[in-house]
UniProtKB/TrEMBL annotation:
InterPro entries: CAT-like_dom_sf, Condensation_dom. PANTHER family: FATTY ACID SYNTHASE, NONRIBOSOMAL PEPTIDE SYNTHETASE. GO terms for cellular component: cytosol. This is Condensation domain-containing protein. It comes from the Bacteria. One of its GO terms (biological process) is amino acid activation for nonribosomal peptide biosynthetic process. The lineage of its organism: Bacteria, Bacillati, Actinomycetota, Actinomycetes, Kitasatosporales. It comes from Streptomyces variegatus. Pfam families: Condensation. Residues 6-292 form the Condensation domain. SUPFAM superfamilies: CoA-dependent acyltransferases. GO terms for molecular function: catalytic activity; phosphopantetheine binding.
């Protein structure tokens, strides 16, 4: 690592899990490489946007962290000083609209598939793509900013805050003097170290006593031919639209029971898992976006 060292931190438990799974399969795409895509109408000042991205990196030490694992009893995150933002500019304005859309998708997919080296900061890069939304005089200038980053740096709660700050820095040409001071990530790690982990572990062990994993059978994987590399498993998104009358009926039932629609749907999911597994007691996880007030 050629950067000047600024600080060394431990990992949070969630970061430990993300790093572990990222290193588990070092060949295929990293499922924890995430992407934010911002579309701009009209002219974009590429220099100002790049300066905003660099200022964002300079302000937040955790965005400059690399993760060291080898030959260590416990992994650490090493914060580097003066890290340059990886930046790329691409011009697709000469392409027809149909080709442009395809090229935008191909580029975003390729960027997400390009793995980060966890021990080389920053685990974040930006690309600005210029294009047009029509042919000739009927078309208008458009730009797309593709932000690819590793989930170990930023959680879902922080992502929109990061984008909001990036746009504020863009308006200010990279000047952060009007922005509030940054709450260091180090403060969260200090707070975390002061929590009663043994007590929390005991409480959850008691709560989940006797629980068995909820295992669903899946279709058999295709056989791997001799000499061929196995295809890595990637998460998939399945989207279905519930009919309006079904949604209305669910909302009415939730009101009658005095629960939220989310609670009702999760209850239905639990019942379905029970039927599929033949178990009366099932356990499943649900991701919640939120933070308790005591977290700094």
């Amino acid at each position: 690592m050629s950067h000047e060292l600024e600080d060394v931190w431990p990992l949070s438990p969630l970061q430990e899990g993300l790093v572990y799974h990222s290193l588990l399969d070092g060949e295929g795409p990293d499922v924890y490489a995430v992407q934010l895509i911002l579309d701009f109408e009209g002219a974009v000042d590429a220099g100002a946007l790049r300066a905003a991205g660099q200022a964002l990196l300079d302000r937040h030490a955790n965005l400059r962290a690399a993760f060291w694992v080898d030959d260590l009893d416990q992994p650490v995150q090493v914060v580097a000083r003066d890290v340059e933002l990886p930046w790329e500019e691409i011009d697709l304005s000469h392409l027809p609209v149909a080709e442009t859309e395809a090229e935008l998708r191909v580029f975003a997919d390729a960027e997400r598939a390009r793995r980060f080296d966890l021990d080389r900061p920053p685990l974040l890069r930006m690309a600005l793509i210029r294009h047009r939304d029509g042919e000739g005089a009927a078309g208008a200038d458009r730009s797309r900013l593709v932000i690819t980053q590793h989930h170990v740096l930023v959680d879902g709660w922080s992502s929109p805050l990061m984008v909001r700050e990036l746009l504020a820095l863009y308006d200010a040409k990279g000047d952060d003097s009007d922005l509030p001071p940054v709450t260091p990530y180090r403060e969260y790690l200090v707070w975390l170290s002061e929590q009663d982990r043994d007590g929390a572990r005991e409480a959850w062990t008691t709560a989940l006593a006797g629980a068995e994993p909820t295992l669903l059978s899946t279709p058999a994987a295709a056989p791997v031919l001799d000499g061929a590399a196995p295809v890595p498993a990637l998460p998939e998104r399945f989207v279905t639209h519930v009919p309006q009358e079904t949604t209305a009926a669910l909302q009415a039932q939730a009101r009658r029971l005095g629960v939220t629609l989310n609670t009702l749907v999760q209850c239905a999911w639990g019942v379905l898992l029970g039927r599929m597994t033949g178990q009366d007691d099932v356990v499943f996880g649900a991701v919640v976006s939120g933070r308790t007030p005591e977290i700094p």
